Amino acid sequence: MEIAAITEWECCWDRDSIVMGDCPNIGEGDEDLLSSRSRRILEKCCECENFKRDMVRFRDSGHPLAPVFSILHADYRRQKTQIQSLANFLDTKTLEVRFLHELGSVLQSSVDLDEVLSVALTAITAGKGFGMNRAFLLLADKERHVLKGHLAIGPRTAEEAGRTWHEVESGDLDLQGLAQNFRATKLSSERDKFHDILDRLVVPLNDQQHMIVRALDDRRPLLVTDAFHRSDLDIEFARLLGVDTFLVLPLVSRHRRVGVIIADNFITHRAITEQDMHSIETFTFPVAFAIERASLYERVQEEVEKLKLANLRLHDQQEQLVRMEKMALVGRITSSIAHSIRNPLMVIGGFARSIMKSTPGNDPKRGFIESIVTEAQQLEQVLGEILTYSDALFPTCDFWDPNQLVETSLRDIQERVLAQDYTCRLHAGERLPPVYIDFKQTGYCIRNILLSTIDGLQNGIIDISTVLSGDRVEIRIVDHNRVLSEEELEALLTPFTETREMGSGLNMALSRSMLEKQNIPLLVVAPPEGGVTFTITLPTHKEEIP
């Protein structure tokens, strides 16, 4: 019996060739199927509704081949579905392998902790990665023996999620590009955004009953469901995350507990499957290893910096010992010479003053005697400075009131200031902290600066102020009368150099040297418009004298 005599077929499977429009499933781009009967049957007819109705008619016709065709058709559709599912699975795995290769290459090459964390969390949340909505990283604090929230990534609202996903789609960046962008623009803001959750994500490592600790000890990921009604999970922990279902991914590297990653779908509420868990599990070990390596590298770098500083400090101390030995020798020599000269000088000066008292004013020899007295006094002053310098090699520091320091220095030179008709105006700062100085030496330096300033001048004004600058106190001495060039300013601070305006630079250079022994900088500024400003910066904390 001929099949064609049984019924009139609705589908076009029985024709060798057709024209566009004969088959409702053939459209633009499928023109090659119009003349290929076998391909048309396999690709289009088996899924066509017309073909299915033809198969029903054929089966109802009682033809002996009808059951065979039905079996073959059903098995073909089943195999086609399986092949399509397998193809989709292979495509997914191919993308996953490429993704893991890209992720692994970044994690293996980076020793920067922020970069590693950015790549890891971006991989979990990016659509091109594992596609979770949020990820929280808890790192093990070995000193406190707790897991502590360190970083989080993801949106907190649906509106924010929409904006973020739109930016990602329009940016068309790969995983590494997304991680770099996250690190450059969002790392700090994401940490701040989730700080209220991160600060409370604290799990004691010795709490063996806590689900997170158990997952870390067992080294197995957990898919937590029905989190709000589980007896083995703290309800406050679930409320803190705000989700009923989440993944717990332990990070363990060579038996060391590095931390835990918690991932969820807070926005989309998409179901998390076992397949999701196993897919993400494959990359937790390289992440744990990379985090541990980056953390170790940071600690090594910190230790290297400490060793460098210690080495520099040791080198400075060795040089300081050499300088101190030289200065001690200089101090002993200058002290010995000064004392040897001082005794006969005092005898000469004493006899000269006695002779001058008994010599009438009209005696022609009185002028010579006065010259001897004056020169003897000047030599005594120079010897006093030399002995003071010898004592200044080893300052004795303590905490003192800076205003008291300035007031005492001004009282000591008050007669000299009044004799030259000078005015010193003190502007004492209020509530200044005590300064750590050698009171005697620092006061001597202030007096030296003031006396050098008024030397050779009459009827001038000096403003002295004490102000707090940062964590230090500044003493500013402003001479409004003098005008110094750059050459004269340099000569002023050079020992035994004569300046037209301020005489010998011994006193100023000696003062600067004494202050430097206490780690106190002296800054001298002489602007072209006139005036000289001396700034002495005093420390308020106990510091080593270099």
Attribute tags:
546 residues; alpha+beta; Beta-Lactamase; Helix Hairpins; 4 domains; 6-stranded antiparallel β-sheet; 5-stranded mixed β-sheet; 18 helices; 15 strands; 53% helix; 15% strand; disordered N terminus
Outline the structure in words.
With 546 residues, the protein is an alpha+beta fold. It folds into four domains: 3-90, no CATH class; 110-282, 2-Layer Sandwich (Beta-Lactamase), CATH 3.30.450; 300-393, Helix Hairpins, CATH 1.10.287; 395-539, Heat Shock Protein 90. Helices cover 53% and strands 15% of the residues. The strands form four sheets. The chain has a six-stranded antiparallel sheet, sandwiched between helices. It has a five-stranded mixed sheet with strand order 8-10-11-15-14. It has a two-stranded antiparallel sheet with strand order 7-9. Helix 12 runs antiparallel to helix 13 (366-391) and helix 16 (439-454) packs antiparallel against helix 18. The longest helix is centred in the middle third of the chain and has 74 residues, at 284-357. Mean pLDDT is 79; it is low at 1-5 and 496-505.
